[in-house]
């Protein structure tokens, strides 16, 4: 009872302090809200919407079950999750967070994952997509597309390591049933695909409408969290709380022989990855390697903003948030360590040289690469896509309400 009352008091004081801060810093709050809104409707919404809609339809048509049967011999020994986890893993890496949590929750609701398997899967299927790493962080913040190679390798290698580590999670909670080892079979995969499609007897129009409604509803929630944490991050800075936390972090950075000036960007990155990565790239007192190590941790940790989005999505099922949070800490350290280890053998050897004969071709990652062009195009046409999608959502919602 005492702990419950204490929690109530803490929550009430926190919300009250935030309300007072909004009154004390109205202009800063508005600026932070606009910044979060721009990021959501320019980048997040148009980039995630197609993945969410297609994923919902692939699940409904049984394609995910088809992929799951084929990937079962790979995913089960490596990560101790069903083959359908391979689909969630691939889509999570391609579209970025929190797509992995969305798909894992959906698969759990479909009964294709047990609770423990879902908690394992969600821990390593949420990561940054290549477009954000190369387009926004590498070129946009560091003005150096070549560092994106280190960031991407460290990020995804750390993610893979987390998946291997989390295979040991929940062994005591699982039933002792033995899974039969079988080779990939197209016949069984097609059979599973057909059976899933028959069981989901929704017509195409209904399935598409449900996919659009569910996806946009999730993205509206994501947008709210992005704006909220953008404001919180700004208010914490103006209230001096970020500085207080950063002063305590300076001792740790000094022990690791890192510049203490990285403390404030690091604390900001714990709340919101975009701002933290941008601030880290602007610290002149740190070397490029030190900036990349800190940025790798920030990208892998995902920030409390993304974690709040994931927590809200997982709350729709019985999947616990705690394993995901612990996995983000491990991912942050793994990514930072990999970035430090790979810096000399990859970046210094192949990219930081004036000898063209020793350099790896980097046209794929250059400032004029298709990734950077796609990122610029997304920023330009993203708002139009968002407005059009929201208009469709309103029409579908109105039609649904009229039927009811």
Automatic annotation (TrEMBL):
Lineage: Bacteria, Bacillati, Bacillota, Bacilli, Bacillales
Sequence intervals crossing the membrane: 48-71, 148-169, 262-280, 292-313, 325-346, 377-398
Annotated Nucleoside transporter/FeoB GTPase Gate domain residues: 44-133, 219-315
Keywords: Membrane, Transmembrane, Transmembrane helix
Protein name in the entry: Sporulation integral membrane protein YlbJ
NCBIfam families, alphabetized: spore_ylbJ
Organism: Cytobacillus eiseniae
InterPro entries: Gate_dom, Spore_IM_YlbJ
Keyword Zinc attributed: no
